[in-house]
Amino acid sequence: MITVRAYGNAGPPLFVLHGGPGAAGYMAPVARKLGRDYRVFEPLQRRSGDIPLTVDQHIADLHEVIKVHCPGERPALVGSSWGAMLALASAAAHPGTFGPLVLIGSGTFTDESSAEFHRVLDSRAAPGVDDRIRAAAEATDPDAALAAIASDLDAPYSFDLLDSRSDNEWVDARGNRETNDDWSRRRTAGEFPASFAAIKQPVLMIHGAVDPHPGPMIRDSLLPVLPRLEYVELDRCGHYPWRERFARDRFYEVLRSWLAKHLPGTPAA
């Protein structure tokens, strides 16, 4: 079973899902903060191995750790970037298993929103960033190469970061490529976001106004299949709200207030 870090020992269960794919551990600050009111679990998603990583493998891993750590309960899922996409895919694959879903800086679900993301990123980042990401998988040390690119992307992904420290436990370049390739194949086939229509629980989308991922376009692509979707946009905020100087407090205020409304058992403020 994959590694799962735990925070807090009281309150309803909640899982935080990191992005990347393959950037394990960077949600630790959010997990620690929410651990004051919840039993928080931070799964470090599976690394690449003998068999290519797929979306279904990540879904199966998450389902397994939930059965182990909170059997019979319906934990909330709080996912960042790819983790937001995994939260939706998991909830669609296992209806009734999860509680409310929170999507922080979600990735894209349509060709149009993906193209807009790349257009904005290309206007901010050093030329050839997409080529560098693809080439990282063939580098002598692909994980180090991808980690360096991720660090370089802090600036074009952000507004005003409080610090540049990474909480990553590891970066998995091969797992990133394999998972993204599988997701792209299934999106092109029309499975995502259509399958999300199976999701009946409330969903909150928190998005930074400066995030290169186009929040309103992503929201509009999800609304036809997620009628209970709520959208909150944070001013002066990029892809990682908890790291942003001007948005961090507002981010936690929105997150905790919404969870208190939709996750039974949340302690009173």
Architecture, CATH level 2?
3-Layer(aba) Sandwich
- What would you give as the CATH superfamily? Alpha/Beta hydrolase fold, catalytic domain
Unreliably modeled segments: none
Helix content: 40-55%
Number of E-state strands? 9
Radius of gyration: 17 Å
- SSE sequence, one letter per element: EEEHEHEHEHHHHEHEHEH
- Could you give the distance between the termini? 35 Å
Outline: globular
Strand count, sense and barrel status of the largest sheet are: 7 strands, mixed
Brief overview:
By secondary structure, the protein is α/β, with parallel strands linked by helices.
Question: What does this protein structure show overall?
Answer:
This protein has 269 residues and is of the alpha/beta class. The protein has one domain: Alpha/Beta hydrolase fold, catalytic domain (Rossmann fold, 3-Layer(aba) Sandwich), CATH 3.40.50.1820. The protein is built from 10 helices and 9 strands. Strands 1-4-2-5-6-8-9 form a 7-stranded mixed β-sheet, sandwiched between helices. Strands 3-7 form a two-stranded antiparallel sheet. Strand 8, helix 9 and strand 9 form a beta-alpha-beta unit. Helix 2 packs across helix 3 and helix 5 runs antiparallel to helix 6. It is globular, with a radius of gyration of 17 Å. The N and C termini lie far apart (35 Å).
Task: Lay out the secondary structure.
Elements lengths: L3 E4 L5 E5 L5 E2 L3 H7 L4 E5 L11 H15 L6 E5 L1 H12 L7 E4 L6 H14 L4 H8 L5 H11 L1 H4 L12 E2 L1 H16 L14 E6 L6 H8 L6 E6 L13 H15 L7
Parallel strand pairs: 2-4, 2-5, 5-6, 6-8, 8-9
Antiparallel strand pairs: 1-4, 3-7
Helix pairs in contact: 2-3, 5-6
